[in-house]
Amino acid sequence: MKTSGSKNGSLPIMAAALLFDSPVFLSNVPYLLDVNTMAKIISSLGGRVDFKGNSEVLIDPSNVSRYDPPLEPVIAMRASFLVAGALLARFGRAKVALPGGCAIGSRPVDIHLKGFEALGVKRSIEHGFVNLECDKLKGANIYLSYPSVGATENLIMASVFAEGMTVIDNAAKEPEILGLSEFLNLCGAKIRGAGSRTIEIEGVKSLKPIDNYSIIPDRIEAGTLMLAGAITQGDILVENINPDYLSSVIEKMIEAGIEVLPEKNSIRVRCKNRPKPVTIKTSPHPGFPTDMQAQFMALLSLGEGTSVITEMVFENRYLHAEELSRLGADIRIDGRTAVIVGVNHLSGAPVRALDLRAGAALVIAGLIAEGETRVFGLSHLNRGYENLEVKLSNLGASISKEVLP
């Protein structure tokens, strides 16, 4: 089964298109609600976004003249705030609503704003909007109090045209940071150290887009498919994925007794028994990704013993636990810790996806639950998975998606 392009890899690069004055052509872009939301934001600023089919997108930012995207698309998605850095680099100002997204906990933009201030930006927050303004961006040494992916991406974009050198310390190391930096470097930026703790950006005068840039594969979709194979005690091959992106997930799957065979651009998963209990603590990359916590909890709910998950990234990311319990899982939550006592089987029931990854967890739990499972709230799932029901059907699942009135 081939993995789609990365949602979290596409969104910052789409935002980075605002740095250019000529068309940007991207391939391997997944057709998702979040991608459409970013397209609406770019269009609202005067740009043009054309979906060409076969996961190809043409973004023409040449007529972008506004720096204040409208409220509605911005509050629908957390990643919408990524346009702030690009707009600052292009216009020296931006007015962006405080962003929305899944209700999985507090995700303040303070880290972004402190970084912008270091570059010489004046900021204020009024009526739910962040106002940013700067006569001239100047390189600076920036220390992030937390290795925020969004803040790292925003500051990279804001620093591309800044005068002098910008150094981001305690930067995020996620593969999506590498993707953004690679794209910008191919277009003439001077970024060093992406994927490490310290990133250096030497300001340049302008960027020139390359003919085509292919978005990296979606590691979270790949991980979700891998766990779907494991929970059903199946044998699947997930293609178009760099195993290094999922090293911590692979490690925990092997610890749980699952056979995982990484190749150069694929991962095979084989499982014949219930998973063994494991202990997981989420953390920034290269640690165990918070975006895989819910799906792994679904797997462990059918484990042979008691597993423990500690969520260290978001304080409210156990919205799926109660819904998994409706299927018969034995899960107890105490603050940031979840204790999962494995049960022999799950039973199908109506459940509701309360955030993106919770929806994925409920879908893969439904694959093994006895009887029919109906997952409501698919708008969350559609934000981050391209044709998940089709891919699971092709792997042998009995699954369909209904459009409800």
Quick structural overview:
The chain has about 400 residues and is an alpha+beta fold. The chain is about 30% helix and about 20% strand.
Distance between the termini: 31 Å
Describe the biggest sheet? 4 strands, mixed
Widest sheet, order of strands:
2-3-1-11
Q: Regarding CATH, which class of the largest domain?
A: Alpha Beta
Radius of gyration of CA atoms, rounded to a whole number: 21 Å
Cα shape? elongated
Beta fraction: 15-25%
Topology-level CATH name of the largest domain: UDP-n-acetylglucosamine1-carboxyvinyl-transferase, Chain
The CATH superfamily label of the largest domain reads Enolpyruvate transferase domain
pLDDT < 50 stretches = 101-107
Number of domains: 2
Briefly note the structural class of the backbone. Answer: alpha+beta
Q: What's the average pLDDT? A: 93
Q: What is the assembly state of the chains in this entry?
A: single chain
Give the fraction of residues assigned to helices. 25-40%
| DSSP strand tally | 20
Under the CATH scheme, the architecture of the largest domain is: Alpha-beta prism
Q: Helix count, per DSSP?
A: 14
